[in-house]
Automatic annotation (TrEMBL):
GO biological process per UniProt: carbohydrate metabolic process
Source superkingdom: Bacteria
UniProt lineage: Bacteria, Pseudomonadati, Bacteroidota, Bacteroidia, Bacteroidales
Protein name: Alpha-L-rhamnosidase
Species per Swiss-Prot/TrEMBL record: Alistipes indistinctus YIT 12060
Signal peptide interval: 1-18
Ranges in coiled-coil conformation: none
Residues annotated as transmembrane: none
Amino acid sequence: MKPILLSLLLLFAVPVCAALPPVFPAEAVEKSQADLRTTTYLSPVRVMWIQNEELVEGADHLLAKGKGQMINAPYPHCVMTSREGRRPSLLLDFGREIQGGVQIVTAGITGHKPARVRVRLGESASEAMCEITPESGATNDHAMRDYVMYLPWYGVSETGNSGFRFVRIDLLEDDVVVPVQEIRAKFTYRDIPYLGSFRSSDTRLDSIWMTGAYTVHLNMQDYLWDGIKRDRLVWMGDAHPELCTMLAVFGDNEVMKKTLDQARDQTPLPGWMNGICAYSLWWALIHHDYYMYTGDLDYLREQQSYMNALFDMAAGMVDGQGHEHMTGAGRFLDWPTSRDRKAVDAGLHALLLMTFDAGIRMAGALGDTALAAKCSSAAERMRKVTPDYATTKQSAALAALAGLVPARQVNEEVLKKGGVEGFSTFYGYYMLQAKAKAGDYAGAIDNIDTYWGAMLDLGATTFWEDFDIKWLDNAARIDELVPEGKVDVHRSYGDFCYKGFRHSFCHGWASGPTAWLSEHVLGISIVEPGCKAVRVRPHLGGLQWAEGTFPTPYGVISVRHERQGDGTVKSKISAPKGVKIVR
C-alpha cells in the first residue's frame, strides 16, 4: 500500500475509532482525584563509604547533576565490578531527608544481562547499613526500604517509596561489570510556596523554625501523614500540631480537608477515630482552629450532624460531678505518658473540657443553640473537678490550657523543673503553649533551643517521632557512620512501637516550635474567623529582633520587631486589605 493511501485511511478512520465503545463501561471506571504532588530528582552530595574500593571506579561521577537519560556515547561512569567472590557496595548521602524513591541509570552491563542489586534506604546513615532483624528494629512495615531489584543492561530504573536521606547499593552477583551513569533520589512533594517565614537574631531558632516547616511539608502527601517512612497514616491527634504548622507556613491546603473528611467518613459513631477517644476530640479541635483560620462556615456546616452526635456522645460520658468516663477505646495522650494512668486521666479530662469550649464557639458560629447548651452544661460540670495534673508535663500543660489550674502555677510547679527533661516531640508543643500562657516566653524559647536544637546537633534535617535529651550523652551524629565507642542514637533508643531503626526520623507531630515561634515571637494570632482580625503582640524573650511573614486568606502579613535601647520593642507591620490588625 502506498504511503499516501495509508495516511488517508488512517485519517478517515479516526471518527470510526472514536465511536467505538470503551473497553470498560464508563460507570465502571472510578475517577481518581488529581495528584497535586510533583517529582524532582536530586543527585547525591557525597559518597560516604565504599566496600571493596578497588572494585569501584569513578564513584565521584555520581555527584554530578544528572538528567535521568542513558547516553550511548563516551560518558563518565561509576563502574562497579564483582570479582572472585568479592562484591562492591556504595553508601550515598543526599544531603537531607526526602520522601520518594531511587532512580538508577545503567549503561552497558556485561553480558547484555540485567544485574541484581540490593537497595537500602535510611533516615540515618546507620539505618542504611543495617540488617532487618528483631534486634535492630529495622522493618519494611509501612514502606519498602530494604529490597532487591534488577538493573537493565542499558536503561533507567526507578524504585522505592519511603522516607530517607541515605542509600546503600550492593552488587549481589559475581563476575559482572555494572557501569552506573547516575544514581538519583526521586523526590515527591507538593510544590507549594513557603508563604510564612521566620528570621531572628538567633540563627539556631531560624533553623528550628524551618526544620519544623520542612518536616510537615514532607508529610503533606496524598493525605496529611504523620511519618514518611513509618506511620504513613492519618492520625487525628498528631494532625493538630501539623495543622498549626501548615497554616503558619503554607496557609490553607486541600490536604487538610481530605484528611479530616477521611477520618470522619471512616469512623461511624459511636466509634472513636483511630480507636482512641482523644483523637476524636482532636478532630473537633482541628475543625475549630481550621474554621478560625479559613472562616469557611459552609465547610463547618458539613460537619454539624457528625459533630452534634460526637458531642452528644462525649457529654453523656461526663457524670453529674463532672468526671469524664470516656470508654470503648484506648485512653491515650502520647507514648511517653501511656504507662501513667493518672497522667492520662488528668490529660483527657482537660482535653475534653477544651473540646467542649471549642464546641461552644463553633455552635455560636453555626447558630446551633442546642449544641451550645449541651457543650456549656458539660463544661460547667467539668470545671468543678481539678484532676491530679502534676504527674507529667503533658497532663500539666493540658490542665493549664484548659484553665483548670493557673498557668503560672503549672509552670512553676511542673514545667520548669528539669528543663526539657520529660518533654516529648508531640506534646512538647502544648508544654510551650502552656509556658506562653504563663508569660514564660524566654523559658519556652530556651526549651526550643535546647530540645529541638539537640536533634539538629545530631545531624537531623527533620524532627523525630520521639527524643529524650538524655540521648545526647556520647551520641554519634546520624549523618555519619558511628565511630567506635560512640552510641548509635537510631539503633539504641526508642520505645513502644518505635524501637531502634523502626523509629521515624520525620514525624509531623514534632513540628510545634514552628507554629509557636510564629504565634508568640512574631506575635501573630487570629482574633476573628477567616483572619479578618489578627492580633500582633510580639514576645522576643532574649532576642534582639525577629521578623517574618504569616499567610492569611487575604494575603501575607509581614512584621519586624526590634528591641530598643530602653528595652521596649518597636514593630513594623504590613497587612493585606481585609485584615484588621489588633495590638
